[in-house]
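It is worth pausing here to work through a concrete case rather than discussing structure prediction in the abstract. The textbook approach is simple: state the sequence, then state the predicted structure, then interpret. We follow exactly that order.
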Amino acid sequence: MKVLVTGGAGFIGSHLTDRLLEIGHEVTLLDNLSVTDGKTPEYLNTRARLIIGDIMDTGILKRIIPEFDTIFHFAASVGIAQSNYEIPRFVGNNCLGTASLLQAIVDAKTQPRVIVAASNTTYGEGMYSCSCGTFHPSTRTQEQVEKYGFQPFCPQCKTPATPIPTPETTELNCNSVYAQTKKFQEETAIFLGKLYNFPVVALKYFNVFGTRQSLSNPYTGVSAIFMNRVKNGNIPVIYEDGMQTRDFISVHDVVDANILAMSNPRADYHIFNIGSGKPVTIKSLAEKVCILYGKMPKIEVNNQFRKGDIRHCIADTSKAKSCLGWKPRVSFDEGLKEIYAWAKTQESQDNFERADRELRDKGLI
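Step two, the predicted structure:
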């Protein structure tokens, strides 16, 4: 097939490109190279055709969209906390960029298969249970944390609740501007796909990690942030008490899901959770990174609440398994070891403290 990958020079897009080429597809990448400071990354597969341009460039889109059978849409600004104080950039790139792509598809009067990179951040907190039953809490506030502690509490009995897997039927309760833009992407793409009869699939990624994820970007990928801190001789800093969890999923498993969604008509107009279903505490992640570098686990747990952060969200992946035939194959420890080996070859700057100052200046910590 002739395939377009928007944001194809980035972390996930470049890994997908390698696999698409490996199995015989013809791949074009559209990327403005903003995440690589305008430079073509050395890892980018030279067998792919690269168009350096912006997703909002309607001239480029009008010219190229009619060529493609399948479009993977990854182009987006990424950064949960950052999105809450760089609002025009996130809304512009993520909402208007997606709108431009969809407009070009509608105008071309073609029916490409569109796979959208969605996000679990649209759920906000995941699902929880206690003796009263199951419930989906709203995003925690500073007042709630001060009164009840970090763990979400049951609205009826006011006791700390236990996280349980979150299915795709869960109500969306966005916890950031970034999440709002991802909600727009998945809902608008599916709506227009149904309206104009081009198939759309939304893959809702949980915490993707792997090689090529920027080590110097302090706003995304906590595994990469910790790896970079320790690599540069610094101590990982953890907000709250370190017992909050994330559902980490290897980029290789994400690529598998995209390949399966590409050729399965049963997936049309559906949303699928793509996660491991296995929560990992942030404290244990920091400890594992220290051990990989041969250092005693020395960690700063600051017990401070970062506004908008979730406590737990665990993927219920039963729908992806039954419909797509997908399941994770890379363990968390295997994935960390791969990042460690790769990180040793990379130059990077530790920008965590700058990001922390920005959040404090904005009153978000």
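Step three, interpretation. The radius of gyration is 20 Å. The first helix runs from residue 11 to 22.
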